Amino acid sequence: MLKIRKTKASDGQLSGRCVSGAVLMKFKKTIMIFVFAGAAAIIAGGCAFFAHSHYKNIEAPVKPMDTVRLASLTSVKNREDIVLCAHRGFSAEYPENTVVAVENAILNGYSYVEFDVHESLDGTLMVMSDPTLNRMTNGRGRISSKSYKDLLTLTVDNGANIEKFDDIRIPALGTMLNKCIGSVPVINIRDISKDGIDVLFTVLEKHDLLRNSVVASKDKKKLLYFRSKSTETELWYFVDKITSDAVDFCMENTNIKLSFNANNLFNTGRLVSKTLEKGVEMNCYVVNDADVLKKYAAAGVTEFITDAIIPMA
User: Fold this and answer.
1) Can you give the pTM of this predicted structure?
2) What is the pLDDT of residue 312?
3) How far apart are CA 305 and CA 114, in angstroms?
4) Among 71, 171, 199, 292, which is disulfide-ready with 175 (CB 3.0 to 4.6 Å)?
5) How buried is 284 (Cβ within 10 angstroms: 0-12 exposed, 13-18 middle, 19+ buried)?
6) What span, in angstroms and rounded, lies between the C-alpha atoms of 13 and 308?
7) What's the pLDDT at 29?
């Protein structure tokens, strides 16, 4: 019988194999270190970029906007019939949502003056667009986490031509309503609870403005809750797109106007015309371009929310 003899590797061969294995393991570890280090660098870089972008966005100064008088837009037919609402007050030239912005909107002849309200920690309605204080004031954090007294200590340090003004404070709703003589206030309810809507009703009633103000929101439930408290106040339903659901909502509930985004290309002139033909009252936001105003005016819209277009007279 043939015998097969097993041979043993020499010490040199074993040593070579061990060295090769050790080198390979070291190489793999090196590769893994580079992979993990690269991944960590990418993640860290991404986080830094996001943080920088977020910080920059929050802290970006609000600059003045070029304005144009409606009377100069001769290509717009029936411009004498157009009604303008000042977005956040006359925010093209004054810090938005402040008393000075509202006062100057009225001085410039705006029929409506829109501003936003949020609820403080202790239930006071404060005028500001953002839910946080970061972008527009020297404070930080959410409005809803601060008391009325705490909010009064802060100053508005951002907005158009802010360097021209000293010691601008965040106004409470009642303060702003006192400045709206000669113009209809449009109160855009933002971060507000049912209790906050109750407060809104009470404040408007106290100022005898239930029939001479507008309550606006993107939230149908909030509008309907306010409607359950007041049937005489005009409501505006803000939407990005004109949908059948939005149209039905306005048709099924009395005295609710559909306010659509004028800068969304989905909202064509033809769609607007068809919606108006159904009997839905409409206006649009935020119109700062003469061509956009002309487009929707031709479709039948007569009310426009704007930062930068100034009324006829």
Assistant:
1) 0.82
2) 87
3) 8
4) 171
5) buried
6) 85
7) 63
